Amino acid sequence: MSTYTLDTATSRAHPTPVPMKRLTVPMLQERKGVEPIVMLTAYTARMAQLLDPHCDLLLVGDSLGQVIYGLPSTIPVTLEMMCAHGAAVVRGSYHSVVAIDMPFGSYEAGPAQAFENASRVLKETGAAAVKLEGGEAMAETVAFLVARGIPVIGHVGLTPQAVNVLGGYRARGRDDAEAEKIVADARAVAEAGCFLLVLEGVMEEIAVAASKAVACPTIGIGASAACDGQVLVTDDMLGMFERTPRFVKRYDDLATRIGEAAATYAAEVRSRAFPTADQTYHRTK
């Protein structure tokens, strides 16, 4: 149970949390076919605080490369980036399971490399699990990690770290051969021990078939409402970017609202309407 106490008088970033028991990996495993799993991305402590009461799982996604750092893809993301942001999200949450993406190049060489880096991620962040991309080729690595106490989330279908091989971000499974491969990949990593499986950017029929084919819960993103849960990049869902992928529903338009607030602030500074007496200090006699 999380019972830490923080001095709210000196830290705007840490309101006193309500002590409660954090969800666990086995709890999420038991949700298949019972109750949909709510999952969103988080990269900072403050965003984790805001999302945590509403989510079952917070993913520190390597999408932070694009969302936070303005990189062209997830490929340049480093282990150091993931550890720094992962630790912040763990500090900002007390209810959700926190999982962290293994960045490109940190696990593909083999099980030993994957264990060394995954164990570092869990030690440095306090997170509960890691996520890695790939199907049958990653099954041995998944089994190696799980056997050594590291919970793993799988990720098949559209795998952003393989964008250079895939030739872009288009939805996968448009022909029979690719559809069969995606379902086979899902089954392979699930049987290897993944406790959750992300299905990204696949034809809905494939998502349904894969969800039925595996024992672990599936998490859809651009997949199907029939999955056992859903995940979105929070900044996409909140309307922080002009372009919205087809599979994203925009629940707000924060980019416009932030721009309007900044414009109002700029106008008040230039007209000397801000600050007023309410925002300044005065000596008392």
Structural commentary:
By secondary structure, this protein is of the alpha/beta class. It is built from eleven helices and eight strands. It has an eight-stranded parallel beta barrel with strand order 1-2-3-4-5-6-7-8, surrounded by five helices. Helix 6 packs parallel to helix 8 (176-192). The longest helix has 17 residues, at 176-192. It is globular and about 75 Å long. Mean pLDDT is 91; it is low at 1-8.
Radius of gyration, taken over Cα atoms and rounded to an integer in Å: 21 Å
General shape:
globular
Report the end-to-end length measured between terminal Cα atoms: 50 Å
> Which class do the helix and strand fractions yield?
alpha/beta
Strand order of the largest sheet: 1-2-3-4-5-6-7-8
Helix/strand order, N-terminal first: HEHEHHEHEHEHHEHEEHH
Average residue-wise pLDDT: 91
Helical content stands at 25-40%
Give the number of DSSP strands. Answer: 8
List low-confidence stretches: 1-8
How many individual helices?
11
Q: Strand count, sense and closure of the main sheet?
A: 8 strands, parallel, barrel
